[in-house]
TrEMBL record:
Pfam families: DAO. This is FAD dependent oxidoreductase domain-containing protein. D-dopa binds at residues 216, 278. It comes from Clonostachys byssicola. The lineage of its organism: Eukaryota, Fungi, Dikarya, Ascomycota, Pezizomycotina. The keyword Flavoprotein applies. GO terms for cellular component: cytoplasm. Residues 3-316 form the FAD dependent oxidoreductase domain. Keywords: FAD, Flavoprotein, Oxidoreductase. Belongs to the DAMOX/DASOX family.
Length: 332
């Protein structure tokens, strides 16, 4: 059974992994491949990337399956760039944890007493999750897929018709991220600019503040540093680093971490500045079949958090689609 995938970001790669585990032969066509340096035209290499569920996001089952996948991977193979970390989340727009659905899923969940909250935070809690270093994980999963016989074709696909002519498979997965704006003719797709910096640190804790501002630290395994962020700028296509954001991010991070990074010198301790464009979609992600194409895109900041759950759903949709095609042929 042959399956084609457009895109080699985290959604495309994990979908390929789930499909080959299910016995499919997979071919991936993509403009950018894991290991490429410098391209800002795809989001996965630039992600934070924490496995961090979000209270209002749909697809709890997808996030749950993803959580189990990365937790098992962190324990089984740390060379994958996945590690278990302690997480602290703060919100200044919530009064309690009634909407925190994942508190029943994550290990070691506990609410923080109000005296331990940073200024303006109304609620805080701790638990255990995982972070992913994309610079390690993406090449790692590509090597794994290479060993499993997945075929990679480097090509910039301009249309679904062109993808069909290249892949020549009965089923195609559209995991093209921002490319879906043109490929699927989906004008709901929008790029959301993010900017972070990798700062020297030995911290192994993930911290997230959400509400009136969006501030976080995410450990990056094997890098000698942590990611500090961030911003969320829909429609901003500027690929250059905004120097004014660096001190602003550092100020916000110190405000929520009891001045943990007060000794950071932005001229000495920043390993790298990162600018990427998250593949968002107005109204939420798309995970469905249309005209024989399985669409899986629009996950914004939660691509890694959704990835393996989406992959399992893609497998399910692919089996159903192939069964429909077989049934149709049998009636002809």
């Amino acid at each position: 059974m042959e399956i084609g995938i457009i895109g080699s970001g985290v959604i495309g790669l994990t979908s390929a992994l789930a499909l080959v585990k299910d016995g499919f032969n997979v071919t991936i066509v993509a403009r950018d491949l894991p290991g490429d340096d410098g391209s800002q035209q795809w989001a996965s290499p630039w992600a934070g990337a924490g496995i961090l569920p979000y209270p209002e996001s749909k697809g709890h089952d997808l996030q749950t399956e993803t959580f189990k996948f990365y937790r098992a991977l962190a324990h089984r193979d740390p060379t994958s760039g996945v590690q278990v970390v302690d997480v602290t989340e703060y919100y200044d727009g919530r009064n309690d944890d009634s909407t925190i659905w994942y508190k029943r899923m994550v290990p070691k969940y506990r609410l923080l007493p109000s005296k331990n909250l940073p200024a303006n935070a109304k609620i805080g809690f701790k638990y255990q999750s995982m972070t992913v270093n994309p610079a390690v994980f993406l090449p790692w999963i590509k090597r794994l897929l290479d060993k499993k016989g997945v075929h990679f074709i480097r090509a910039e696909v301009k249309s679904l018709a062109e993808a069909r002519s290249i892949l020549k498979t009965p089923v195609i997965i559209n995991a093209s991220g921002l490319g879906a704006f043109d490929l699927a003719g989906d004008d709901k797709v929008i790029a959301v600019r993010g900017q972070t910096m990798l700062v020297e640190s030995d911290s192994h804790e993930m911290v997230m503040f959400q509400g009136s501002h969006y501030t976080y630290q995410i450990p990056r395994m094997f890098s000698g540093g942590v990611i500090l962020g961030g911003v969320s700028q829909p429609g901003n296509s500027d690929q250059d680093v905004d120097p004014d954001l660096r001190p602003d991010i550092l100020r916000r991070m110190n405000a929520i971490s009891n001045d943990r990074f007060r000794s950071v010198d932005l001229n000495k301790h920043v390993i790298a500045d990162l600018v990427g464009f998250r593949p968002s979609r107005k109204g939420g992600y798309r995970l469905e079949v249309e005209d024989g194409i399985i669409h899986a895109y629009g996950f914004n900041t939660l691509g890694y958090t959704y990835s393996y759950g989406v992959a399992l759903k893609v497998c399910e949709l692919a089996k159903s689609l192939l069964a429909e095609k077989r049934a149709l042929r049998s009636h002809l």
